[in-house]
Amino acid sequence: MTEILVQDAATAAISTDSRVVEHPAWSRLKSAVGEIRPWQSPDGSIDFEAEGAPSRAAAESAVARVADAVDELSPLLPHDSAYHRALVADLRKWADGAFGVPDFLDSLLAFRPAADRAHGRQHLVVFPMYTQNGNPDRNLEAVVLRMVWPEWLAELERTRYDNPLFLGITFEDFTAGYDTNSAVLFPETIAVREAPERFSWGGIFCDREAARFRAVTNAAVDILGLDLPDDIREMVRDQERCQEAFVLWDMVHDRTHSHGDLPFDPFMIKQRQPFWMYGLEELRCDLTAFKEAVLLEADGVAQARDVQYAVLFDRMFRFPVTGERVRNYDGLGGQLLFAYLHQHDVLRWTDNTLKIDWERAPQVTNQLCAEIEKLYRDGIDRPKLVHWFAAYDLVARYLSPHPGSRWAKGPDALDLSLPPRKLVDDVLPDEFPLSMFYEALSKKLKKVIAATKGITAAGPAAAGTASGAAA
Question: Is the Cα dihedral 12, 14, 17, 20 positive or negative?
């Protein structure tokens, strides 16, 4: 019995102090996953009749190497032992089923990282999945992550922002699907035979968000000639401070989707709506985080001021000029925030220099949040189509619609005999085009933004300013 206790203590010490990615089994696992991914179809299956397909024996060998590596690494992570057993069983079931569409529901249900959120705890995660804002196909992926759950954050979650499913996480290492713009680990992306009634966790990589924010903000500040307050300039230079800002922002944002006056399903699951509805919902959640950060700053929470400027700068500098313009709802929210602050004289773009009234910025940003909250409150009493038009009017009050827009012409320009979901077809791909300001900024920032693909805290763009890339 004494020997068993000594072994258990040693295993616990390893899980706390040793990096999983430094164990030789991680390299073997990562290599095997990298071998399997190109063989997979978009749904995750392997078609052995396809050109370039492996033999079934080769696929079985590669999956066996993944399973063996998981078995070897699992003792370093005793908190995930049940998940790893289920994972190995799912891997073997996939192979035994001739590599059809993978079903990892059993291992998904066994993975419960939110049940005990310990700061610094590592997790080894392997699933067939797509990576949001990354790879759209359900490839096998492996990621080693570390929990971000300091006591100050845990206390805020306990006392003010109950969010029992939220995971703040950072990358240790990952396979190719995360060498992308994806900064989330969500259970709904995983290949399963049926969706669980309720998911039990959701993770956001605050290190990638912080590193990307620092790179883009540094470049934008240089391009726009913006004079930052000393404390905010220091924050943008500090990866750790930015990570703390983002993990608090994300925790409040995430819970806001299910809080407040909600005229519709806040996650808009299986709903077809105009993309400005998604944009307003995401912006509402971000502005709620901003509003709470103003209150937290008054209560002396050290990270709260950083959250406010992370929201402002990421929304105004990165979101509007990132990604395609087709139904870019996050970009729309960033455009709306900038236009609102500009039209209320918080921002001034004169002499090719951006100036911000730092004292009025919190008050006016909260005014925009209040306008969106009123839209939601009033929407509870409106039919869906009327609510969509009211939301359109709110956005169009500050952003110019495309001159060819039918929606901009009002209800008389649409066939109202059709159900609302059909009228979404009349929405232009870029219903609210970029302003001339953002068209110019996009040209100067696009290389910096492209260079943040796959970035982490250790990435080159996070190590210093990105002004050289912007030039």
Answer: negative
